[in-house]
Amino acid sequence: MLSLKFNNSYIKYYDAIVSDNEKNGNIKVKKSIGDNYYYKSKSFDMAQEKMMKNIIDGVLSDYQIDLIIGGDLTNQLEAFYLSNNNNKVSSLGVYSACSTFLESLINAAIIVDKYRNVKNILCVTSSHNLVSEKEFRYPVEYGALRNENSTYTATCAIGAIISNEKSSIKITKTTIGYPCECGIKDPNYIGAIMAPAAAETLYEHIKNNQENIGDFDLILTGDLGSVGLNIFKEYLHKKYEIKLNKCKDAGANLYNDINEINDGASGPTVLPLYFFYNILNSKKYKRVLLIGTGSLHSKTIVNQKNNIPAISHAVEIEVA
Fold this sequence. Notes:
With 320 residues, the chain is an alpha/beta fold. The protein folds into 2 domains: 162 residues, Peroxisomal Thiolase, Chain A, domain 1; 151 residues, Stage V sporulation protein AD (Peroxisomal Thiolase, Chain A, domain 1, 3-Layer(aba) Sandwich). Strands 1, 2, 3, 4, 5, 7, 8, 9, 10, 12 and 13 form an 11-stranded mixed sheet that branches. The longest helix has 19 residues. The protein starts with a strand and ends with a strand.
């Protein structure tokens, strides 16, 4: 895997809007769309676009942005492009399933580190529970039973400005993962699908950078859920003799005990949401390794009963 180092890449601002499910969980976010998933729109899809537009317009009103990089879970990145329509800011849409935000972050860090004339890049992503259920599983109205290992897609839009102007949050290193699959065909088991990819990326990151697991105050995975996190730890221990002690999964910790949520949260917003509004707010951690995870399935792959590949990217953060 390819690992890179950065000298002048920083996170200087972040903002999010969530539904009440997320607001009432283990994070402290001020902006909420409430408990109505329509967000005063005609459809759930339009509600997701409105959430994303809320974040983008808010940033553009206060900052000079040179480039917007982002993506989501909708077909053709519909939410990203429609929410960003007519802003007249250069835009790059990216897709890496639930690791999309980290892929955006990596691209932005590379650009601001190399090109001094690019000052500020906005990285943005979104997900909406009812849009994603329709896209990747079944519409809620269908009444399909949820598997106990299923995760619950978070409803959120989140953005962060990546800059070469110094701040207290520095992006120092990254390892860019590759797709891999372990023979799972069921999209309800995304934690198990993504765990091996996350483990391989973690191993490659510490090997390429000649680091030790103990060098990090925290290793934060994206949305493996409780089941996937256990598989991730077991995989690392059995294959590489790596034992993880200081490790959390954002998806497994995003919510409090809410009955309809089984194995935690999923979606591209989960990792940045928990990192910004829980980990940073705690002020306990100075060196954090973020490991984004993505299950690369689609309706076509699932209907044709193909093995589902996954991908994982790592980003190392130092907090002053």
